[in-house]
Design goal:
- Keywords: Membrane, Transmembrane, Transmembrane helix.
- It is built from 5 helices and no strands.
- The chain is mainly alpha-helical.
- It has one domain.
- Helix 1 packs antiparallel against helix 2 and helix 1 packs parallel to helix 4.
- It starts with a helix and ends in a 35-residue tail after the last helix.
- The C terminus is likely disordered.
């Protein structure tokens, strides 16, 4: 499953609309229950049962609504991850370009430049090419990790949207049950059951997403450690690769940089 920003936004909008729908249905429970109790032939103990079920339905629905609203607070994260994944691919491209420019085959100075400075220059370029190549690989790994996280976010909100739609359907059934001439205990039981099932589904979805993002966070931490490791850079820095700086066997303008001497 790849990441599509349009698909993701549609999934989040579906969850948002669903949350608004649940909120609307919550407001319809009490009036429906009151209407069901407003009959002379309804015994008192039935009225008490209807009232209790209405309150229970409202409580369960409100819990799920609050949980959905809480989960929507992080909805922007997958989009940012996806955008950052593209940026890291740009970093990869730049680093790959540097690595290619520092390859031995790209150093076309042999016909006009000889001596110890030339040898030191060529020697210094090899590890720098390797270092740039490592940066490119890190950029690729970070991009991949961010994309995986973005895709996980998409899958999560798609699943959450299905849960919301299913729960709204159960609420519609329960509210309709209040309006029947003979109160439907099965209809009320359905909303209680759906609340329990959907609560479990939400918890399971959150648990799965948390486990995946936890593993990705651990990998990102490792990649950060590699990124700040200067051991691949001779002297811990990039030397000046300009050929003119080595034209007479020393550094340009007498600014000695003995780390380049072979």
């Amino acid at each position: 499953m790849g990441f599509s920003q349009a698909q993701y936004e549609a999934a989040v909008n579906k969850v948002t609309d669903g949350a608004n729908g649940i909120n609307t249905k919550i407001g319809q429970v009490a009036p429906a229950a009151n209407s069901a109790m407003d009959h002379w032939y309804i015994p008192g103990f039935i009225k008490d049962a209807i009232k209790w079920l209405a309150e229970k339905i409202t409580q369960l629905a409100q819990w799920i609504l609050n949980k959905i609203i809480e989960l929507l607070k992080g909805a922007i994260a997958p989009i940012r991850m996806f955008v950052d994944a593209f940026d890291w691919q740009d970093i990869r491209g730049l680093a790959s370009g540097v690595s290619g420019q520092l390859k031995d085959t790209a150093l076309t100075v042999d016909d006009v430049w000889h001596g110890s400075a030339r040898d030191a220059y060529v020697k210094a370029m090899k590890p720098q090419s390797d270092a740039a190549d490592r940066v490119a690989k890190i950029g690729d790994k970070v991009s991949t990790s961010l994309t995986v996280c973005a895709v996980a976010g998409l899958a999560f909100y798609v699943a959450l949207g299905v849960i919301v739609v299913k729960f709204i359907a159960a609420m519609v059934t329960a509210i309709a049950a209040f309006g029947t001439a003979v109160f439907s205990w099965a209809g009320a039981a359905l909303i209680v059951e759906e609340a329990g099932v959907n609560t479990g589904l939400i918890i399971a979805a959150v648990t799965t997403l948390t486990a995946l993002l936890g593993a990705q966070a651990a990998q990102m931490s490792t990649l950060h450690g590699e990124a700040v490791d200067a051991s691949m850079f001779p002297g811990g820095k990039w030397p000046n690769p300009v050929v003119a700086g080595y034209s007479d066997g020393s550094v340009k303008d007498g600014d000695a940089d003995w780390s380049l001497k072979g």
